[in-house]
């Protein structure tokens, strides 16, 4: 079983910052991409940022220039630094990772339980 421990969510004022962390553990042979998604009630889950195993990154247009994704591969950990937060960033944020259980198995996507981020004055 692949497990996620997410932390860093909470309440912050507009313009403030938060740093989300996600530690992946379990039966892991290799982790390829790692990503952060977010979802608000009544809307579909959207990709916020993705980090490829080779160092490539992707950001949604709405967060480009404000959010930064990074990772510590030795610790199987991914971070999301969120600066200049807006009320529109309020959502449940989910950690995701593409994980290979064995060296001959294909990659599969796994998800964390989510952490609430609320941006309000």
User: What overall geometry do the principal axes of the alpha carbons give?
Assistant: elongated
Helix content: under 10%
Series of H and E elements:
EEEEEEEEEEE
Total DSSP helices: 0
Q: Spans of 5+ residues with little confidence (pLDDT < 50)?
A: none
Largest sheet: 7 strands, mixed
- Give the overall pLDDT as a whole number: 95
- Computed Rg: 14 Å
Q: Tell me the total number of β-strands.
A: 11
Q: What's the end-to-end separation, in Å?
A: 40 Å
Query: What proportion strand?
Result: over 45%
**Which structural class is indicated by helix and strand composition?**
mainly beta
Keywords:
single chain, mainly beta, seven-stranded mixed β-sheet, four-stranded antiparallel β-sheet, 11 strands
Describe it.
This protein has strands at residues 2-7, 10-12, 18-26, 30-39, 46-51, 57-59, 67-72, 77-82, 91-100, 108-111, 115-119. The protein is mainly beta and 121 residues long. Strands 2, 4, 5, 6, 9, 10 and 11 form a 7-stranded mixed beta sheet that branches. The chain has a 4-stranded antiparallel beta sheet with strand order 1-3-8-7, with no helix packed on it. The protein starts with a strand and ends with a strand. The relative contact order is 0.32.
